[in-house]
Structures are given as C-alpha cells and as structure tokens.
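Model: You mentioned two targets. I'll fold them one after the other.
Researcher: Yes, keep them separate.
Model: Target one:
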Amino acid sequence: MRKVILGFLFSINFLVAEGQTMEVVYSNPKDTLFNYYIAFKPQGEVKGLLVLLTSFGESPQITSNETDIHKIANKNGLITVFASLQYGTYTFFIDSLSQSSIDQLLKNLHERYGIINKPIFLGGFSLGGSGVIKYAERANANAGLLKPKAIFAIDPPLDFERLYYSLEYAVRNSTVPIAKNEADYFIKRIQYEFQSYPEYDKTPFQTISPYSFSDTNQTNIKFLANTPVMLISEPDIIWQMEERDRSLYELNVLDCSLAINSLRLMGNNNAKLVLTANKGYRKLSGKKNPHSWSIADSEETINWLLSFAKN
C-alpha cells in the first residue's frame, strides 16, 4: 500500500549568506532523496511563506541553483522552501499521492514556522507548476486545506489530454533522441497515472488535469476564478523546431494561454499570462532552453505575489 510520510523530523542548518539561513529538513535522516525540503529563512521578521515545487527530474538542490527567487523572497521577509515529495525527482505532482504529500507538507511547514495569519504563496516549474495549479484548485474546493494567497507556474503542462496527443506525435515523427525518448517515457507514465489514454476514455484526463479544453464545464479551473494566477512561458518556436522537432501544439504555452483566457472570461482580473523572449537558459549548464526557471524574473514575480499579501 502506498503511503504518505507525515512528519519531518531531522534538520541541518547552515548560514549561507548574510541575512539568510538554509535549513535542510528530512522526514528520515537515512533517506536523503525523498520527502525532504530545503528552507531559506530570512534573519529578520518573517512575513510569509513561499513553497516552490521542482520540475520532474530536478532535486531541490539543483533548483535552488537554477533560480535566485529565494534570495529576492528572503529580502522581502518570506521563508522559501524547495520541496522534494514522495518519489523525489520522479514525482508526477498532479496524482493523488503527490497531492496528499503537498497537503501534509504545507501543514507541517505551517506548524514548524508558525505561519499563522501570514500569507502562503505557491510556485513551481513544469510538472511542479502543474502540481501547484492542481493543489490551488483543490484547496479552493476543500475547506480543510491551506489556501494560497497567489500562485505562479513556469511553463506547466495543464491539459494532459493535449499533452498525451503531442507525445504520440513526437514518438511518431521526432528525429531528436532526447525528445523522442522523453515522449516515450511520459506516454507510459501518463497511462500509469491516469489508468487510461484519451482515445479510450477522456474522463480521467478531464478529471485529473488542472485544465481541460475538452471539458466544457471547466470543472477544475473554475476553482481558481477568484485566485491570483500568473503563468509564465517562453514560446521560442524556432528553437523548439530546430532543437526538438516540436510544433506549437506541443508547447505548454498552449495550455497556459487557454487556462488564463478561461479565467479572465470567468471574471478573474488577476489571471496573468507572461510571455518572455530570449530569457530561457539553464544556469548550471549555461545552455539555451526556453523551458527553464530563468524565464521568470525573480523580482517581478515576488513583487506580484506580495501585491496580494493583504487581500
């Protein structure tokens, strides 16, 4: 039986910079790969909490070196947490076990850091961003969950029916090994997580996906009608075509634009789509990639989140 580990019991503290302390907290000191988080804490008054979910394949250590958003957050009094969930770098984020893990993580953080009557913000990249959107929808539908003041996601896939078809296209047509292998893996993973595929039954895709174009009732995304949401993408279609054999249909910006437009049509004036150009690169490798943490401007993102702190 699959279980969610409930507590975080063991921690190591480091002074990493003037005015900033890093704390690594493990649920099991013998297991340093799963169910742990890295917290960056400001030395002064704590004004809130920012929880960041990594992308598939990224550890919190890697993520904290790919972005400096935690540095800007700390300057503004926010404790910033990079989290590893139940399957570590192989976490899928939107499945029920991952979501239960996020539920418990936020509860633990709320208690550990005494974030009482202070704002909680959520952000994530790629599948981690998908998990953020999914959690916020569930939190607004469930009185027992902690509700974020505002959320952001960097280039997240949201409509997994669209994603599945785009992966099938890549397997059939791509000549780039990295794109073809990635597509083959995620087709199998989606079939496992959804226990279905769209040609057979769309219902799980409409139910589990944070956003579903084919669901005319907008069942999940409507729970964000009153939540500030910012989605950030860099639709560098020429790079995608030349480096990954991908068309516009295969880019997550399609989901992001549809989701934000749907929210705006519902009257959400705080639903924002940010499109960037020539900002995408991986800091650790120095390689260009429009699907990266770097497309989010750290100061602009933190200032946008904090503008809703007292709402």
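Model: Target two:
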Amino acid sequence: MSATTGAVSRIPVLGRFDLDESIRFLEGFTPAARSDAAEETGVLRLAFPVEGTWDHVGVLIRQRAPAVVEAEVFAAEDVVPAVVAQVGRILSLDVDGTGFGGIGASDEVAGRLIGRYPGLRPVLFHSPYEAACWAVIGHRIRIPQAAGIKQRTAERFGRAVPVGGRSLVSFPGPEELLIAGDELGVPEVKIDRLRGLAEAARDGLLDANLLRGMEADEALAHLQTLRGIGPFSAQLILIRGAGHPDVFPRDERRLHAEIEHAYGLKDATPAQLEQIAEGWRPFRSWMALLLRSDRERRTHEISG
C-alpha cells in the first residue's frame, strides 16, 4: 500500500468533546500501552489496521475548535473515508453527545463526574477484533502483563507506521495473526482462541457496523458464539470495541464496586445497580467509563 500524506478530513462533533481528555485517558489506559500519548499537547497519533481491508494506517488528530476535529490520514487515498469513520468511532464522535451533560441534572453522582472529566468520551480499542484479542490475551492474568504481551505482539507481527514524523506500531490484522500462530507467546488454548477470532474478523463476524446494527442483547449473544468469549468479554467488545453508547456492563465487578462506592451503597444487588444505571440512558456505557476512570484515579488498581 502506497502512503499519502496531507489528506486532512474534518470530523464534526455533536455535544461536548475534549481531545486532551481523550489523550490523558489513553496515557493512563494500561491496555493501550501509550505512555507517549500526552507528549505533544493537543495532538494524538494512532496506528491501526482498517476494518475490512486491514491495511495498516496512521492518523494524526487535532481539535481545531469545540465542534471540529481534524484527522490527517497517512494511508492510500482509497481507504481514507474508512479510516476517518473508524477514527470517529474510536473517539466516540460517531455518537450525538448533546444530551450527555443533562444526565447530571437528575443524578448528583453523574453530575459530579461529568464535571470532573469535562468532554471525556470513551476512547475505544481500534476495532472489535482488537478488543476481542485483548479479552483473550488478558484472561486470568494481570492487566499490565497482558498489556506487555499485546504490545510485543504488535511489535513482532504488526507493522511500524509513520505518523506525522513518528513511528507507531499497529496491531496485526487477522491474516498476520493467523500466520503468527504458535509464535504468539501465549498458552495453546489462547492461541486457538486468537486464531478463531482472526478468522471471525476476516469473515466479517466482528465488524463494528454489524454489531452496532443489532440490538445490544442480540449482539452480545452473537459475540458469545465465538470461542473464548463469555459474557464479560462480549460486553467489553460491544462497548469498548464497537462503541455502543448505551450498554450496562452486567459482569464487570470493578464497575459494580465503584457504583456502590459512589452512591453510598453496600452489598447492592445486580437489580439495584441496573436500576441506578437506568438513569444514565442513553449513555450507560459513557457513564460507566467515567466511574471506572474515577476508580482508577483513586486506587491505581489496574496500572499498579
């Protein structure tokens, strides 16, 4: 693939968004392994395989105004529209966030968190495929250990991509992951599951548009037909890979503990937690992110 430079596209923003908040989140988000994210103020660089073609591309992102994000794409011209659409999803700009702040009017906890993290929207894995691979790699091991494996996998089997004067590694696409096979450095059961996910992504079964086009429960059931994907992983893929804005993670214990902490509850039932989350509609995924971010800021239980 021959690369082009200077292909700048604008991504419109509906509702409040702050790219610097996204950059700060990425810097502290262990699975991303992006300690460099905040090195240049107001600039975010990404490298990833494009869904569908799986070409490795680079993108340099700036926010020129509250309602305008610019994406400079380093890729062949014919994939630029797909890249821009994928960037919009990665930054949750494909969702009209106009009403998000209004949740805080009737929920004091939500209002406090929205004020503490102004303009922060979920920053996703680059694709549901990559989120699914993370779920398998990270199963039953510590998050920093899993992040190291994911980073080494990208460095060895992915592609180094020039992005605005710097080089970033892009996670291997499905075919590259299949070729890597036994050399992935994880147990055999995980190799088998990663192969299955690579095949599913290659065949379009992990496509973000496919998953977002389904009802949430239907998408979760679909994801759980894939080897190694249970309820927790399915929710992660749908929320953090496909970017569904309104799913309550029923199986995320850390989130549930944080809801209890934030709302002053003790031994709350799943039904009680879901009832609280009903007040966050249609942004349950977004509020869950703010709660998790606040928990990590306070406890450092993931990065530590």
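Researcher: Noted. Anything on target two?
Model: Residues 18 and 119 are 5 Å apart (CA to CA).
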